[in-house]
Amino acid sequence: MRAGLLAFCLAVIATTQLLTATLSSLVIVVLLVLCLVSYPLLPRGWRWPLAAVLGLVWASYNAQSLIEQQLPVEAGQTDAYLELFITGVPEQGSNYTLFHARVNKVIEGEVGPDLGGLLRLRWYSRGAAEQAAFPGATQKHQATHLEAGQTWRLRLRLRPPDGFLNPAGFDYQRWLFVRQITATGHVRTSTDNRLIEARPTIHTWRTRIAQSMAENLPASAQLGLVQGLGVAVREGISDEHWQILSHTGTAHLLAISGMHIGMVAATFGWLFATCWRCIPPLVRRVPALIAGTLAGVSAAAGYAALAGFTLPTQRALVMVCVFALALVMRRSLQPWHSFILAAAAVLIIDPWAPLGAGFWLSFGAVAVILLATQGRLLGNGLWPWLRLQGVVGIALLPATALWFNHLPWLSPVANWIAVPWVSFAVVPLVLIGVVLLPLSDPLAGLVWQAADISLAGLMAVLGTLEAQLGSYTISAAPRYFIVLASVGVLYLLAPRGLPGRWLALPLMFSLLLIPANTQKQQTTAVMFDTGGAMAFIVHAGGEAVVYGLGPGGGLDGVSVALEPYVEQHGLRISAWIVPREGDLWSGALGRAQRTWQQVTWIDNPYDCANWRTELGSLSLATRVTEQGCSLRLTGEAGVVNVTPHLPLGTSKNLPGTIICPGAEDAVNPSLEASLRHPRRQDPHIGANDCSREVFRGASLEVSKLDSDQLLDSVNDKSSKSLYPQYLIGLRDCTDDYEGEDVNPVAGGGCDLALARLSNLDGELEEIASTSRDGAITFYPEEGYLQPQTEVERRGRVFHRQSREGRE
C-alpha cells in the first residue's frame, strides 16, 4: 500500500509540473480499463505502476474539468448578464471592490454551457459623469455594499483567465489556475444591476469579525496582522510588514496557515483531554486520548472555517484528520506512512496543489521534523525545541531560494523568537476575542488590543533584525544548485555516524555561489508581454538598453515585466529610448525615472538622430521616423527593427500600414509584401497598393527608412550573407477599452506582434505575438537570432488554453 500511495503522489506531482496538454477522454477511459484489467493479474508487490497511472489520469482529468468550466477561449472578451452568488470576503481597493462569485444562472451572453468555478471580478467606483448618465443606479447598489452570501444580477465584461507571461515575472495564469478561477472581469454600469437576496454564510461572519476588529483597532498599524490571524483577511497588511516578514522568514506565522491549524488542534486537544481525565465516569466511557483527538479535530475545523476553508487550510485540516483517524482507530501507523497517506489525501482533494509554494513548504517542514526526530533522543527542556526550530529553518532555505529567489538568513533566529511569541502571546488572544465577540464587543476589543500590543512588540523586534542583516537576494537558482543544497539538507539531517556528514553546510551554502544568469553575459533581447505598449530590452555583459514606454498605474510595464527581469539578472540600464515624447501612454516613465536615476534618456528627436552604441555582438542605432524614434539592432546574427506603436485612441482610425516603395520612391516595383495572420487570409499587397492602410487590427509597421535594406536582402537571393530580419509592431488596442466604465490600467488590450521577412519571396509572415505566446526572447544561436516565446520555454496546460483565447 505504501508503494502504491508513493507512486500515486509522485505521478500527480510529475503531471502538474510537466503536463502541456490534457489527455483526451478516450485515452483516460483506455487507461482506466487497462488498470482494472491488470489489477488482478499483477502480483501484489507490482501493482504500484497502476497507482502511478491513476495519479496521471486523476491530475489530467481535474485539469480538463477545470478548463471546460473556464470562459471559452474563443469567446475572448465578452459581455454577459449573470446571476451570481458572492463567496469569500470582498476586498476594498482604492477605487474598486474585488470579489469572487459563483454562477447561479446565465441570463444573457455567450459564455459557454459549462461556465463554473470562481469568477474574479472588480466593481469600480462611479464618477460624477456616470452618476448623471445612470440616475437609476442608486447608492444601495454601490460595490462598497457587497457582502459574502449575497446573490446579485450583474452586467459583466468577462475575459478568459489570462495574464502576462514574462521571464522573471509573476505567472498570473498559473495563480488563477491553482485557485480554480475560470474567468476574470468587471461589473459594467447598468440599471439592471440589482441585489436579489442575502443569506448568512461563514464568510458573512468572517466579514463581521473583520469589521469589528477594524472598529476596535481604528488606528493600529497591526490591524491587517490581527485580521489575518483571526479570519485570514490579509489585504490590510502593509508592504513594510510584508517585507519584514519575508526577509526574516516569518511570513507563515502572521496569517492562518497549516502551522496554526496544527497548533490549535494539538493545544485544544491536549487541554480537552486533560480536563476529560479529571472526570472518571467520562474516561470509563471514552478514553481521554480519543476525546482529546476529536476535540482537537473540531477545533482545527473551526479555525479553518474562520479562514474560509482556503486551500492551505484545507490541506492542513486533511493532514490533521489523517493523524487523528489513526489515533481514533487505534491503528499503529508509522510516521512516514502517515505522511504519505496525508500527502495522497491532499492530492486527491486538490491534485494541482504542487503548483504552489505552500504545498512544498508545509510538507517539507513536516518531512524535516520527521527526519530530525525519528530514532533520536530528543531530551528534555527548551534546547531540543529550539534546535528543532533551527533545523527546520535552515533545511527550508533551498526551497525558499527556489520559490522566492532570496535567502532569509535570519529565519532560524527570527523563528526562535516569533514562533513562541505568536503561538502563546498572539493567536490565543485573537481567538479569545473571536469567541467573546457574540457576548461582548467591548470585551473582545480589549483582548484584541492586547494582541495588537503584543504584535507591535514582535514587529519591532523583527524590524530591528531585518534592518541589521535583512536577506540575501540571489539570481534565479539553477536546478543543479538546488539539488546540491538539497543533498546538503539530507546530510544535515542524517545520523552522526554517516561518512562525509561535514559536507552538509558547504553543500547548502553553495546557494551563495549561484552565478549570475548566463543571459547576463550573452547578448539577449526580450520583447515583454505587458498588454499596454512597447517594452523591449537588449542586454549583454550586465549592461542593458531599454526601448519603449507604457501606461502608468498599478500594471505598468516597469513593475509587471522590466523591474523583475532587471533585478533577477543583475543588469545595469545605461540608456532608455522613448519612442514618442509626450505619448498618451507614457505614465510608466515616471516610475522608471524614479527607479533608475542614472540612465541616459533618449527622449527627443535630436538625441534620437544621433544615438549609436555597441552592446555585445550587436550594434544599436536609433532613427527618427514619422511615428517617432525607431530602434534597429544589427549584428552578424541578424537584424531586428523595432518601431513605435500607434497612440491609444488613433489606432482604430489608423489601423497600421505597410509602407513599401510606391510610385514616387520606387526602388523595385516588383517587391511585394504581405502579412499573414494565423486566423484569417489578408489581402496580398503589391507595389501599387503600398500607400493603402491595411491589416486592420493586425498590422506591423515597416518604415520607409528601412526599405532599401529590406530590398537588398530580398533581391540578393544568392548572397551568402543573408540573415533573418525581424520586425516588431503593435496591434490595435482600442477594442478592449470601449465603454464608459473601463479602467484601462486594469488590463491590457494591446498586442505586440513579431514578423519575419522571408529572403526568398519577400513576404512578411507573423510568427508570434505577445498576447498568444508571452514574452519573446532573441538568442544568438547557430549564427542567427533565434526567437523563443515564453510558452515554448515553459508553457504548461494552464498557459496553452488561456493564450489561445486572446488571439
Please write out the topology:
Elements: H1 2-18, H2 25-38, H3 48-69, E1 78-92, E2 96-108, E3 118-124, H4 128-133, E4 150-159, H5 172-178, E5 181-187, E6 194-198, H6 202-216, H7 223-231, H8 239-247, H9 258-277, H10 280-285, H11 288-306, H12 311-328, H13 335-349, H14 357-373, H15 383-395, H16 397-404, E7 406-407, H17 411-425, H18 427-436, H19 441-468, E8 472-473, H20 479-493, H21 504-508, E9 524-527, E10 535-540, E11 543-548, H22 557-569, E12 572-577, H23 587-595, E13 600-602, H24 605-610, E14 612-615, E15 618-625, E16 628-635, E17 638-642, E18 675-676, H25 707-715, E19 725-730, E20 752-757, E21 764-769, H26 770-773, E22 776-781, E23 784-789, H27 790-794, H28 797-804
Parallel strand pairs: 3-5, 11-12, 12-13, 17-19, 18-21
Antiparallel strand pairs: 1-2, 1-4, 2-3, 4-5, 4-6, 7-8, 9-10, 9-22, 10-11, 14-15, 15-16, 16-17, 19-20, 20-21, 22-23
Helix pairs in contact: 1-3, 1-13, 2-3, 6-7, 8-19, 9-11, 9-12, 11-12, 12-13, 13-14, 14-15, 15-17, 16-20, 17-19, 18-19
Give a short synopsis of this structure.
The protein is α+β, with helices and mostly antiparallel strands and 807 residues long.
Strand adjacency order, main sheet: 14-15-16-17-19-20-21-18
Report the biggest beta sheet as strand number plus sense, adding barrel if it closes.
8 strands, mixed
Instruction: Give the termini separation.
Output: 47 Å
Estimate the mean pLDDT confidence.
Answer: 76
Report the C-alpha radius of gyration, rounded: 30 Å
Q: What count of helical segments does DSSP give?
A: 28
Return residue spans where pLDDT drops below 50 for at least 5 consecutive residues: 128-141, 646-723, 732-749, 801-807
Record field, number of beta strands? 23
Structural class: alpha+beta
How much of the residues is beta strand, in percent? 15-25%
What general form does the structure show? Answer: globular
Percentage of residues in helical conformation: 40-55%
